[in-house]
Amino acid sequence: MKFRPGRIVPALTACLALTATALFAVPAEAREVRESGSSAMAASVARVGSYNVKGWHLTEPGGIDGRVRMRESLTRIEAKGLSIVGLQEFESPQADVVRNDGGWGLFRADANSVYAGGNYGGNAIMWKKSAWRLVNAWQLHAKVGDRRALHMPIVLLEHTSGKRVVVMNVHNPAGAENEAWREHLRDMERAKLRELKGFYNHVLFTGDFNENTEAVCFFTTNALMKAATGYKPNADGSCPASNYRTVDWIFGAGPVSFAGWEIDRTFEERNWSDHPLVSAAYTFG
C-alpha cells in the first residue's frame, strides 16, 4: 500500500533543511561495547520479514476487516517461523490483535497518521518472545523542511543465544511527487544506519521504501548494508537493475548473511494486504 502523505504542502526545493529530534541519537543506555572475538562465536539464525499490513481504515466496503486480516496474517507469519517482522501502515486495531496473541513483543513508533476514535497508524516492529528479549526501544523522528515528521521505530533485541541485534523499520512515501522527500529521508536513514553500525555488531533494516533499484542501490553502495535478496552493486560502483520488482526490502550489516529470500504473495491473494510478505533467513555471528 502506498504511504499517504496527508495534507498537500508546497513542493520541496534543494535548500530544504533536514532535521531530527534528540531521539535521533542512540540512547546511552542502549549503546553496547563490541564483544571481543565475536566473529569466533557460533552463528545464530532467525527468519526475519517486512510486511505492509494495509491499515485497518483502508478496508474496502464489504472487504475483510483489518483485525481479521491481521489475525490471518499473524497465523501465516508464525507458521513460516518468522521471529522479527517490520510492520508498516500498522494501526491500533491491528496492534490489539498482535498484543492479544500473547506470543509477540511489539514496539510502535509515534503516529504517522491519526484517525477517528484515537486510532493511529504508522511503523512498528514485532518479535517472538520465545526467541528475543527487548533491551531498549527508541525512534528516529525524521523531519524534512515543512513536511510532517515520520517516525521510524528502532529496537535493541537480545536473542536466546545472548547475541544482540538492533532493528530499524521505515516507510517512505510513494509517488513521483514525493521523490525529493524520499531522497531526503534516505539520507537521514543512511546517517542513522552509520551511527547504529558504530555501536552494534548486528544491524537489521526493514521497510516499505516505495522504491526498487533506487533504494537497494542507495543502501548497498559502499558496503553500507547487505541486501537479503543478494543484490550487489557493480565493481565500478554503478548499480544494475534489481531483479525483483517489489518495494519491500530487508538489509543487514555486520557479520551477517542472508539465505532463502522469499516473496509470499498469499497475503495479497487472500486480500489480507496489497503487499506480499518478504522474508529471509538471517544469520548473525
What does this structure look like?
Mean pLDDT is 89; it is low at 3-23 and 35-40. The protein has helices at 66-79, 92-101, 179-199, 213-220, 266-269, and strands at 18-20, 44-52, 82-91, 104-108, 113-114, 120-128, 132-144, 150-159, 164-171, 203-208, 226-227, 248-253, 256-264, 277-284. The protein is of the alpha+beta class and 285 residues long. The chain has one domain: Deoxyribonuclease I, Chain A (4-Layer Sandwich). A seven-stranded mixed beta sheet has the order 1-7-8-9-10-12-11, covered by helices on one side. Strands 2, 3, 4, 5, 6, 13 and 14 form a seven-stranded mixed beta sheet that branches. It has five helices and 14 strands. Strand 8 and strand 9 form a beta hairpin.
